[in-house]
Write a structure and sequence with these properties.
eight-stranded mixed β-sheet; globular; 12 helices; disordered N terminus; 333 residues; alpha/beta
Length: 333
Amino acid sequence: MAPQLPNLQETDGSPEDPPVKSPRVKLSDGRYLAYRERGVPKAKSNCKIIIVHGFGSSKEMNFQVPQELIEELRIYFLLYDRAGYGESDPNPRRTVKSEALDIEELADQLQIGPKFYVIGISMGSYPIWSCLKYIPERLAGVAMVVPVINYRWPSFPDSLKREDYRRTFVKLLYWIAKYTPRLLHWWVTQKWFPSPSVMEKKLEFFNKRDIEALKKTEGFPMLTKERLRERCVFDTLRNDFLVCYGDWGFDPMDLSNPFPPNESCVHIWQGSEDKVVPYELQRCISRKLPWIQYHEVSDGGHLLVHYSGLCESILRAMLLGEELLLYRTSADN
């Protein structure tokens, strides 16, 4: 049986720490991962899906799927707090590879079977690339929604990288986060620094559909000034960012299709109006890896996962292989 700790009142010793309320599993290195289960009971499910949250999020993220579809396809969802997020212990030795190994060990601890599906959202997609690299034999299918781009990947043409204004910002923020963390911590907690509530209304960061979606979600609660003042929160976000945009040790565009020939079970979902992740580089990936099915939402921003009906479309494409012509865009455009 998995060593679960439901409703355990445990903290790390600080009187300010809230009690742990979620079930957790203990990993081989002694860390605990908190998780949440949704959908049909695991023992009665046909499809077991692990959902990996993004930057500043948690296992409490919304992934809205009609109950009728869950019951029809008998889907079991497993959401978990990545290392340092929510109620999971931090991993000071976090790497791209450790993210995949956390997923594999969580799946084994909870005995969900030899194969499972994975869905990664935004920065939660780099653990998915890691799964494709290090544990491809465990994957039944894959979906990445607005996956992050790492400009260090050698296969990206220099011309495309030079044209992307976001590259300079990411390089600068990476340098500051790596070499002057105290300065960064001071900077993001100052009164004059834009709060997330202000940023969520800015068209520089989100398109109109994103802003409408934010009115119906909780936004980014971990990115408030109050939370960022907590050193453990800041360290987790900084650590995650550095690993995501650091040297991965491999180029995803060198990966081979882990599934049988002529069978495509890997999907990328991207918005053409995404102001965080460039769609041009996503199209480049889909050209270099033709075994990935690329879906582009013509008026979509970075918050696709919160759009009405999108989660259902993601599942129907991944689980049923449905051709969704509305979101099929040629990478040659």
